[in-house]
Design goal:
With about 450 residues, the chain is an alpha/beta fold. It has two domains: about 230 residues, Aldehyde Dehydrogenase, Chain A, domain 1 (3-Layer(aba) Sandwich), CATH 3.40.605; about 180 residues, Aldehyde Dehydrogenase, Chain A, domain 2 (3-Layer(aba) Sandwich), CATH 3.40.309. It contains 14 helices and 17 strands. The strands form four sheets. A seven-stranded mixed sheet has the order 10-13-14-9-8-15-16, sandwiched between helices. Strands 5-4-3-6-7 form a five-stranded parallel sheet, with helices on both faces. Strands 1-2-17 form a three-stranded antiparallel sheet, with no helix packed on it. Helix 2 packs across helix 6 and helix 3 packs antiparallel against helix 6. The chain is globular. The N and C termini lie far apart (about 45 Å). The model has no long low-confidence stretch (mean pLDDT about 95).
Length: about 450
């Protein structure tokens, strides 16, 4: 870890990348996007073998998304302007945007290539060098990405990929004094440790995306309840629920509760769960035996608390040797229950009824998280009230999922700080330097 950080520091300090004209950095990143597209299927298969995501989704969300992300930030590389301050005419106040230096990016196992690109592309476009640590269970696609970056013309030392268990390698990176910024997507417990390591070392800036327990609020006046059920099902069950923005809490207006739950159960039971490399599979595998055991413990707790398991709630396809879980729908989940408040990171949807707009907002905000949310309503006024009232970084209206790289993704409360995607992502990777010149 220390050697990787030293390589990144040397590469930054000698200007082999940061000193290039932005147009030249742009050309390298475009070539990298070309190579990702060329090897999209192979990269996707590497990722699927690691984490069990269904191939059809991964092809678009991993390689497809990564290529698009590198193109977006490549195009932005030569469009980051400085500023001239409106000062007294006797003074010239200039604001320069400069790369921060060495960036460490620690990314999770669920979408390593997509989330890796969210960190890498703006950091590299701004002129930084990077040490990237994938999750120990999902590193293959990012190791291959490093090879493709070298083929695209990225100078040696600018991108360094290091592997190993987080408790060893992550700690070493977070304590390293050569690192200027650390960006992380993962669990809250790890995020807290990274903040501690920053305080114990050189006070490196730390930006955290820590997941969520996202509410999906369905009102009786939703324009198409059948569509809402179909989209909401995929909003929680795709990638076996292993999505940070997954709509894992369904808040449904009481007058339509039973009918909507029936629609959702029908959608859940129709999903094809199976081998993620089978092109007919709609829901792939749970990442590990440990993750599956944790998912099932939530079901046991909910059943003990009197909630009803409408469908799913069990391990399936065990004879294959894989870790699969049936899409699960749980009703009667009280706001003080663990399943309502804690992130499962599995294919488990908790359902809670509400009666009024005010109650819906209170329930939506009734966790420590604030990453994403969804609202289904035919009322424009209600949609705006809900967007204003729900504390979340992203609020979907009459859809769930799909925001592209043009808009930011970030959380509030214990979902973290800072933003991935959009031009706002550059805020993490540039420093502002003032030049105050007496004329």
């Amino acid at each position: 870890m220390d050697r990787a950080c030293a390589e990144a520091r040397a590469a930054f300090d000698d200007g082999r990348w940061s000193g290039l004209p932005p147009a030249k950095r742009k050309a390298v990143l475009h070539r990298l996007a070309d190579l990702i597209e060329r090897e999209a299927v192979a990269l996707t298969v590497l990722g699927v073998r690691d984490n069990g995501t269904e191939f059809n989704m991964a092809l678009k969300a991993e390689a497809g998304s990564a290529a698009g992300t590198f193109r977006y930030y490549a195009e932005a590389a030569d469009k980051l302007y400085g500023e001239i301050a409106p000062t007294d005419p006797s003074v010239l106040g200039l604001v320069h945007r400069e790369p921060v230096g060495v960036v460490v990016a620690i990314v999770p196992w669920n979408f390593p290539l997509m989330i890796g690109a969210w960190k890498l592309a703006p950091a590299l476009a701004a002129g930084n060098t990077v040490v990237l640590k994938p999750a120990e269970t999902a590193s293959l696609s990012l190791l291959r990405l490093a090879e493709l970056a070298q083929e695209a013309g990225l100078p040696d030392g600018v991108l360094n990929v290091v592997t190993g268990p987080g408790r060893v390698t992550g700690e070493a990176l977070a304590l390293n004094h050569d690192v200027d910024v650390l960006v992380f997507t993962g669990s809250g417990a790890t995020g807290r440790r990274l903040l501690e390591y920053s305080a114990r070392s050189n006070l490196k800036r730390v930006y955290l995306e820590l997941g969520g327990k996202s509410p999906n609020v369905v009102f009786a006046d939703a324009p198409d309840l059948a569509k809402a059920a179909k989209v909401s099902a995929m909003g929680i069950f795709r990638n076996s629920g292993q999505v940070c923005v997954a709509g894992s809490r369904l808040l449904v207006e009481r007058s339509i509760h039973d009918d909507f739950v029936a629609l959702l159960a029908q959608e859940a039971e129709a999903l094809h769960v199976g081998d993620p490399l089978d092109l007919s599979t709609q829901v792939g595998a749970v990442n590990s035996e440990g993750q599956l055991a944790g998912n099932l413990s939530f079901i046991d707790d909910a059943r003990a608390a009197g909630s009803e398991i409408v469908t799913g709630g069990t391990r399936i396809l065990e004879d294959t040797g894989g870790t699969y879980m049936a899409p699960t729908l749980v009703t009667g989940v009280a706001p003080d229950h663990r399943l309502f408040r804690e992130e499962v990171f599995g294919p488990v949807l908790a359902v809670t009824p509400f009666d009024t707009d005010e109650e819906a907002i209170a329930l939506a905000n009734g966790t420590d998280y604030g990453l994403a949310a969804g609202v289904w309503t035919g009322s424009l006024a209600r949609a705006h009230r809900m967007v204003a009232g729900i504390r979340a970084g992203v609020v979907h209206v009459n859809t769930y999922g799909g925001p592209d790289v043009t808009v930011p993704l970030g959380g509030v409360k214990q979902s973290g700080n800072g933003h991935d995607k959009s031009l706002h992502a550059f805020d993490k990777y540039v420093d502002l330097k003032t030049a105050w010149i007496q004329l």
